[in-house]
Design a protein that fits this description.
It contains seven helices and 24 strands. It is mainly beta.
Length: about 575
C-alpha cells in the first residue's frame, strides 16, 4: 500500500507491513487464507454502533482512522461532525464540540476519565495520544443519567484494541516517512498491533490478548507573523506592534497499549485495559518584535522600539491509564463494575523561558501588507551589534494530575404492558488530585554585575542567520551562549520568589455520584427517563502575594447537583 502523507511540507509515503506479510504468505498452505475487508465494512460498523447508542454520538473505527494521515487522536476526531480542532504548529491539539471550548469537554480512555497534563486548564491535549492506539473513537453529545456529568460540549471516548474485535490471529503494521523542507530533515514513524485468542481451562478461545504500539520522531520548522490582535480600527487599520517568529521543533510521540479479555462463559466477561503515551516536544524559537510609538497604518513611518528574543525549552507530557472491569448476568439482572486509575503529567526541566535583547528606537520604521505584516526598517535592525542583552527568564515546572474511580451498575430487564423495558441504577466515586510546582529566576541588570557592553552585545551570542521564509530576519541567538553566561552566576541572587510561590499549588476534587434510570421501547421509539446526583468537594491550597507579603490560601467548596433527564 502506498499512501501520500498529506500534511508533509514536501513529500511522504506509507508502506504497509501487513501487505508485505500477506505477500510473503505461502500460497500452498491449505490452512491459510487472506481476507480482504473493504472500506464499507468499517463505515458499517461505525454506523451500527451509532444506531445502537442511547446517546447522540458519532463514531469512527480504526480502519477509518488508518485511511487518513492523522498524527494523533485530535486529528482523528476532527473527521466527525460537530467537532473542530485547535492546532499547534499545524497539528491538532485541543478538541471543541459544537463550538464550546475544550475545557468544557471531557475525555475518557476505555471508560475512565483522563485528567489534563497542563497546569492551568482542564482540557486534555489529545496530541499526546497516537492515533494508531485507537480501535474506535466516539464523540458523545448528549449525556444519559448513567454517564458522568462532566461535560457541556461532549465526551470524547477512546477505546483501544480488544482481541475480540477480530477473529483469531490479527496483526497489522505500518512505516511512514515525511520530509520538511524548512529544516531539511526526514521524520520516521512506525506502528503496529497484534491480537489473538487462547483457550483457558475448559473454554474455547475465551482469553484474548491484544497489544499495539506506535513511535514517531518529527523534525520540522515554521515561520509566522503575529500581531496579537493589537489593531486600532477607529479611523483605519492601524497596528501597534507585531512579531516575526521562527520555530525549530522536534516532536517525539510514542505509545503502548496492552489489553486482556477473559470470557469464561456466556454470562460473564472481564477485562484489563492499559495504555501509556509519551509526548516530548523540544522547541527553539527566535523572534523579532517592533512596537510603534503610535499605532501606524501600512506604509506609514515613525519611531519603533525593536527587540530580539529567544525561547528554548523541552517539554514532556505523559498519559497513562489502567482499567479493570467486568460484567455478569444473573438471571434478568446484569451486574457490571469498573475500577480505573489514570494519570497525566507535564515536565519542563530548567530552560530559557525568554531571553530578550533590546535594540532601542529605530526611526522611519513601519510595515507593509496588513494581512502578513513585514517590517519597513533600516539595515541597523539586522545588525547584531545594535542589540544588547536585557533579561533572561529561567524556569522549570512539573505538573501531575491523578484520577482514581470506582463504578458499580445494576440493570434488570422486564416487561411493561408488553413493551421491553429496563431499569438501571448505580453509583460512582472518583478522587482527583492535581499538583503544580514552578520555579522561576529572572536574570537582569547585567551592567551592575560587572559585565561590559561588549560582553552583553548580541554579536557575542549570535548563531548564524535565521532562515526566515517570510522576509528578512537577521541574526539568530545561541541558547548555549545564554546558558554559559548565566551559568557563572549565583541562582539564589535571581530567584523570583513571588512567581515561584504563587504557582506552587495543590487541588483536590472528590465526586460521589448515583443515578436511577428507566428505558422503555415502544415500537420504533426508545424513551429514557432518569435522575442523576453528583456531590462535589473541592479544595485548593496555595500561596497568595500582596505587595510582597505572602499569605497561605485554602479554598474549599461543596456543592450538590440533581440532574433530571428525559431522552
Amino acid at each position: 500500500m502506498y499512501r501520500r502523507q498529506l500534511n508533509a511540507p514536501r513529500a511522504g509515503f506509507t508502506v504497509s507491513v501487513l501487505a508485505l506479510a500477506i505477500a510473503a504468505t505461502p500460497l500452498w498452505a491449505a490452512d491459510e487464507h487472506v481476507e480482504v475487508v473493504g472500506q464499507a465494512v468499517s463505515i458499517d460498523q461505525a454506523l451500527k454502533e451509532q444506531r445502537r447508542s442511547d446517546s447522540v454520538q458519532s463514531t469512527v473505527h480504526a480502519d477509518g482512522v488508518a485511511q487518513l494521515p492523522d498524527q494523533n487522536v485530535a486529528e482523528a476526531t476532527q473527521r466527525l461532525p460537530g467537532v473542530s480542532v485547535e492546532r499547534d504548529q499545524g497539528e491538532g491539539r485541543f478538541v471543541s464540540v459544537r463550538g464550546l471550548g475544550p475545557d468544557l469537554n471531557s475525555v475518557s480512555i476505555n471508560g475512565t476519565l483522563i485528567p489534563s497534563p497542563e497546569a492551568d486548564r482542564r482540557a486534555v491535549a489529545l496530541d499526546v495520544l497516537p492515533a494508531e492506539l485507537v480501535q474506535s473513537l466516539s464523540v458523545v453529545k448528549t449525556l444519559t443519567p448513567d454517564m458522568d456529568a462532566s461535560s457541556l460540549g461532549g465526551t470524547i471516548e477512546v477505546e483501544s484494541l480488544s482481541a475480540f474485535d477480530h477473529k483469531g490471529l490479527f496483526y497489522t503494521g505500518s512505516a511512514e516517512g515525511s520530509y520538511d523542507d524548512n529544516t531539511q530533515q526526514s521524520s520516521p514513524k512506525f506502528s503496529g498491533a497484534i491480537s489473538d485468542r487462547f483457550s483457558l481451562g475448559d473454554g474455547t478461545d475465551n482469553l484474548g490478548v491484544a497489544a499495539a504500539l506506535s513511535w514517531q520522531q518529527r523534525d520540522f520548522g515554521s515561520d509566522n507573523v503575529e500581531t496579537g490582535g493589537d489593531w486600532d480600527f477607529e479611523d483605519r487599520a492601524r497596528l501597534a506592534q507585531f512579531e516575526q517568529r521562527d520555530y525549530d521543533i522536534r516532536r517525539e510521540r510514542s505509545g503502548l497499549g496492552l489489553n486482556f479479555d477473559y470470557r469464561p462463559d456466556d454470562f460473564s466477561s472481564y477485562y484489563l485495559r492499559t495504555l501509556y503515551s509519551r509526548y516530548k516536544d523540544t522547541e527553539t524559537r527566535n523572534s523579532t518584535s517592533l512596537e510603534f510609538a503610535d499605532p501606524q497604518a501600512p506604509g506609514q513611518l515613525g519611531d519603533a522600539e525593536g527587540k530580539r528574543k529567544l525561547k528554548n525549552r523541552e517539554e514532556t507530557q505523559e498519559i497513562q491509564s489502567y482499567v479493570f472491569g467486568g460484567e455478569r448476568m444473573l438471571g434478568l439482572w446484569t451486574l457490571s463494575g469498573q475500577a480505573g486509575y489514570s494519570q497525566s503529567s507535564e515536565d519542563s526541566p530548567a530552560h530559557i523561558a525568554g531571553a530578550t535583547f533590546d535594540g532601542g528606537d529605530f526611526a522611519n520604521s513601519g510595515f507593509h501588507d496588513k494581512d502578513k505584516p513585514r517590517p519597513i526598517i533600516g539595515s541597523a535592525f539586522y545588525d547584531a551589534r545594535n542589540f544588547s542583552l536585557d533579561k533572561v527568564d529561567w524556569e522549570k515546572q512539573n505538573t501531575q494530575d491523578t484520577e482514581k474511580n470506582l463504578r458499580l451498575d445494576l440493570a434488570r430487564d422486564y416487561d411493561l404492558s408488553g413493551y421491553a423495558s429496563q431499569v438501571k441504577f448505580g453509583g460512582k466515586v472518583s478522587r482527583r488530585n492535581k499538583d503544580n510546582d514552578l520555579e522561576a529566576w529572572v536574570y537582569k541588570d547585567f551592567d551592575t554585575l560587572g559585565f561590559t557592553a561588549d560582553q552583553l552585545n548580541l554579536s557575542q551570542f549570535q548563531k548564524g542567520t535565521v532562515d526566515y521564509r517570510l522576509g528578512s530576519y537577521g541574526p539568530g541567538i545561541s541558547p548555549s551562549a545564554i546558558k554559559q553566561l548565566i551559568g557563572g552566576l549565583n541562582p539564589a541572587d535571581f530567584y523570583d520568589e513571588t512567581e515561584s510561590r504563587v504557582n506552587h499549588f495543590t487541588i483536590r476534587e472528590d465526586i460521589n455520584a448515583g443515578y436511577l434510570m428507566n428505558t422503555v421501547d415502544i415500537d420504533d421509539w426508545r424513551f429514557i427517563a432518569g435522575l442523576r446526583y453528583e456531590g462535589t468537594e473541592f479544595e485548593a491550597k496555595g500561596t497568595g502575594a500582596t505587595d510582597g507579603v505572602f499569605t497561605p490560601t485554602d479554598t474549599q467548596r461543596r456543592y450538590h447537583h440533581w440532574l433530571p433527564g428525559l431522552h
